[in-house]
């Protein structure tokens, strides 16, 4: 399964690690490079620095192949918008927004 997580805070990093340990292909996106320090050394997924609702960033994460997108930034508005974009524009089967 291919999962994209936007927001590498405590929740996003924890979810990324858990999914990767279950064999999922995980890509995590955050605007701040320092946020990836929340991931443990040896994290098997990929990381992208960028704004999670930017079309080019989402395409770089291969959103067209994603099975799920989880939006867990610190902005409810961004999370809701990202889930809507993932579902309506990219037809991702599962889009989850933390509100």
Low-confidence stretches: none
Shape: globular
Average pLDDT over all residues: 97
Q: Number of helix segments?
A: 3
C-alpha end-to-end distance: 24 Å
Structural class: alpha/beta
In total, the number of strands is 5
Using the CA coordinates, give the radius of gyration.
12 Å
In the sheet with the most strands, the strands line up as: 3-2-1-4-5
Oligomer status: single chain
Strand content: 15-25%
In short:
With 99 residues, the chain is an alpha/beta fold. It is built from three helices and five strands, in the order E-H-E-E-H-E-H-E. The chain is globular and about 35 Å long.
Overall description:
Helix 1 (10-21) links the parallel strand 1 (2-6) and strand 2. By secondary structure, this protein is an alpha/beta fold. It is globular and about 35 Å long. The longest helix is centred in the C-terminal third of the chain and has 14 residues, at 76-89. The protein is 32% helix and 23% strand. The protein has three helices and five strands. A five-stranded parallel sheet has the order 3-2-1-4-5, sandwiched between helices.
Helix and strand layout, with pairings?
Elements: E1 2-6, H1 10-21, E2 25-30, E3 46-49, H2 55-60, E4 68-71, H3 76-89, E5 94-97
Parallel strand pairs: 1-2, 1-4, 2-3, 4-5
Descriptive tags:
single chain; 99 residues; alpha/beta; five-stranded parallel beta sheet; 5 strands; 32% helix; globular
